[in-house]
């Protein structure tokens, strides 16, 4: 029979031993694994052709598929490059593949050299002179109509004949598996394109959102006050740099949270964030903690230990309470900050590190430098970019948000569902909280722990039960200095009166009266002082004393009260706030000085 192109199986010879083996099943199994492992057709089809080359002794293989314009194109080859199959000397005859696709029938070419359609393709085959090049091409169809073809090239010695019927049947099964994978991939791509189009349509339909403000609040910071917005803007601006940051503010204002935000918004976010409380360790232990130590450096140093500077290399080191370190240790710290190098305790090897420093303190460093308690050169080294964190009383609008945040945290930890009443939130919003956020958290936890109902009322707050611990703390005054990192107070004493004022508070302080319950009688801005809603206030202010020996004459007191009443529009509660008194005290003073009330 002549070697010409024929359609369908032509050779019906007795079964070969290879046909009865388990090799075809193993090959189909490998093909199905490849096609089921990924939707990347280019790689999976190339791997399938490689498997067929191992099983069928195939020299070259080609897979063609229809593109979006319904044109047949070569998508995968084996035994040659894709470029050669499409553009090179060994250009694959797409007309033959198109005939197989259009007729949906397999094609067998026993000798490609005898078929002019394959002359160029056969000439580039890597075969021997006495070998005959044959080709088998089957359609790839995922339904009624084919959309591609699978062809292989085989070589045989002259005078020998292959049984192509077995090959056609096997390739048809492989083509069916390929068709299923291609159909699935095209459905996935179609669904993805539809989703992208739908997303674009919805985004176009939605109103355009403005670009986030530079002062957008930080992710780990609760608050919406203008003060915190400014802090957030500063943090976002300085975080990408390498500059040293000094966080200033009273105890409990959230300096550690801001330090974490600076780190995680910086290019060092994937590196360590190490924190050290300098006030918690004596100088000897602090040196070992920061710089590490060698084995045997001191009693108990049984192993070598890395310091926090080494652990933070490439990242950020947060030194809290840096104002508490001794002058002697400040010199050691200055060197590592300037040169980026140090030696471990008991060692002589110089270690270089790349660390960004964020320091924090509630201490007046300028005053400490003046008194010689803090080195001026270290002060200038750490005070590169200072950030001043406001006290909670300076951002009262954040108090309800923080209270709700801490209550939610309490509920999650204790399996409860408590909530605040409007009155309770209003009362807490009027408190000064000298302990700042930390004191507010304790206040919320205390009220939630003692709450008997699901709603925490105003009467459930400790200040309404004369149990405000902060007010008791502020009664212990006398030095005029800060108490444990809190805002300092100033005081004036005389035989019968005492006045207490917040640092930076411009309101006049009124004398105290014996017997006034702690935690009451101090009104914050915008609240009535006779309402017992200031659990964290300094000790109360009392009415002007009627006894002899008072610092101010009756005429002077009367003039001051009249002036305040006129300024307040003759509203007693407002005038009381101006004078640092309660409405009860202002009423007593009006009667004492026989000041007639005016109706506005």
UniProtKB/TrEMBL annotation:
Coiled coil: none annotated. SUPFAM superfamilies: GAF domain-like, Homeodomain-like, P-loop containing nucleoside triphosphate hydrolases. Residues 485-563 are annotated as: Disordered. Keywords: Activator, ATP-binding, DNA-binding, Nitrogen fixation, Nucleotide-binding, Transcription, Transcription regulation, Two-component regulatory system. The lineage of its organism: Bacteria, Pseudomonadati, Pseudomonadota, Alphaproteobacteria, Rhodospirillales. GO terms for molecular function: ATP binding; DNA-binding transcription factor activity; sequence-specific DNA binding. SMART domains: AAA (SM00382), GAF (SM00065). GO terms for biological process: nitrogen fixation; phosphorelay signal transduction system. Required for activation of most nif operons, which are directly involved in nitrogen fixation. Residues 507-534 have a biased composition (Low complexity). Residues 490-500 have a biased composition (Polar residues). InterPro entries: AAA+_ATPase, AAA_lid_NorR, GAF, GAF-like_dom_sf, Homeodomain-like_sf, HTH_Fis, Nif-specific_regulatory_prot, P-loop_NTPase. PROSITE patterns: SIGMA54_INTERACT_1, SIGMA54_INTERACT_2, SIGMA54_INTERACT_3, SIGMA54_INTERACT_4. This is Nif-specific regulatory protein. Residues 221-449 form the Sigma-54 factor interaction domain. Interacts with sigma-54.
């Amino acid at each position: 029979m002549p070697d010409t192109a024929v359609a369908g199986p032509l050779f019906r010879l007795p079964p070969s031993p290879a046909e009865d083996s388990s090799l075809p099943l193993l090959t189909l199994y490998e093909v199905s694994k490849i096609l089921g492992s990924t939707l990347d057709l280019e790689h999976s089809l190339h791997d399938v052709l490689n498997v067929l080359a191992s099983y069928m002794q195939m020299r070259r293989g080609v897979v063609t598929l229809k593109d979006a314009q319904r044109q047949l194109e070569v998508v995968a080859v084996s035994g040659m490059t894709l470029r050669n199959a499409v553009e090179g000397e060994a250009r694959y005859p797409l007309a033959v593949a198109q005939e197989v696709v259009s007729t949906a029938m397999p094609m067998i070419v026993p000798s490609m050299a005898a078929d002019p359609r394959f002359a160029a393709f056969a000439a580039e085959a890597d075969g021997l002179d006495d070998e005959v090049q044959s080709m088998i091409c089957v359609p790839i169809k995922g339904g009624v109509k084919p959309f591609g073809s699978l062809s292989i090239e085989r070589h045989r010695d002259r005078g020998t004949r292959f049984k192509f019927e077995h090959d056609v049947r096997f390739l048809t099964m492989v083509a069916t598996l390929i068709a299923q994978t291609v159909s699935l991939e095209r459905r996935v791509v179609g669904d993805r394109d539809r989703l992208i189009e739908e997303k674009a349509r919805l985004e176009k339909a939605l109103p355009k959102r403005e670009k986030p403000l530079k002062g957008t609040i930080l992710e780990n910071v609760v608050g919406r006050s203008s003060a915190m917005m400014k802090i957030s803007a500063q943090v976002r601006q300085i975080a990408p740099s390498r500059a040293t940051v000094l966080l200033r503010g009273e105890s409990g204002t959230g300096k550690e949270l801001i330090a974490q935000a600076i780190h995680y918004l910086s290019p060092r976010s994937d590196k360590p964030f190490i924190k050290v409380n300098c006030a918690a360790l004596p100088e000897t232990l602090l040196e070992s903690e920061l710089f590490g130590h060698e084995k045997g450096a001191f009693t108990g140093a049984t192993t070598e230990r890395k310091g926090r500077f080494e652990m933070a290399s490439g990242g950020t080191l947060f030194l809290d309470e840096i104002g508490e370190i001794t002058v002697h240790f400040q010199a050691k710290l200055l060197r590592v900050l300037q040169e980026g190098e140090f030696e471990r305790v008991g060692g002589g090897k110089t270690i270089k590190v790349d660390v960004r420093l964020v320091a924090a303190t509630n201490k007046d460093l300028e005053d400490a430098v003046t008194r010689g308690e803090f080195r001026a050169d270290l002060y200038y080294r750490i005070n590169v970019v200072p950030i001043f964190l406001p006290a909670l009383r300076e951002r009262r609008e954040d108090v309800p948000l923080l209270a709700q945040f801490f209550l939610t945290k309490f509920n999650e930890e204790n399996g409860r569902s408590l909530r605040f009443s409007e009155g309770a939130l209003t009362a807490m919003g009027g408190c000064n909280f000298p302990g700042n956020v930390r004191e507010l958290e304790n206040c919320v936890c205390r009220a939630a722990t003692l709450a008997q109902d699901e709603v925490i009322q105003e009467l459930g707050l400790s200040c309404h039960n004369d149990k405000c611990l902060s007010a008791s703390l502020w009664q212990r005054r006398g030095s005029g200095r800060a108490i444990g990192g809190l805002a300092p107070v100033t005081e004036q004493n005389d035989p019968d009166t005492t006045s207490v004022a917040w640092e930076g508070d411009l309101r006049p302080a009124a004398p105290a009266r014996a017997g006034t319950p702690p935690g009451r009688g101090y009104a914050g801005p915008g609240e009535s002082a006779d309402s017992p809603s200031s659990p964290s206030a300094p000790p109360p202010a009392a009415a002007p004393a009627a006894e002899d020996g008072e610092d101010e004459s009756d005429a002077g007191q009367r003039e001051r009260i009249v002036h305040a009443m006129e300024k307040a529009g003759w509203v007693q509660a407002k005038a009381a706030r101006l004078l640092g008194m309660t409405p009860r005290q202002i009423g007593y003073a009006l009667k004492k000085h026989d000041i007639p009330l005016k109706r506005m």
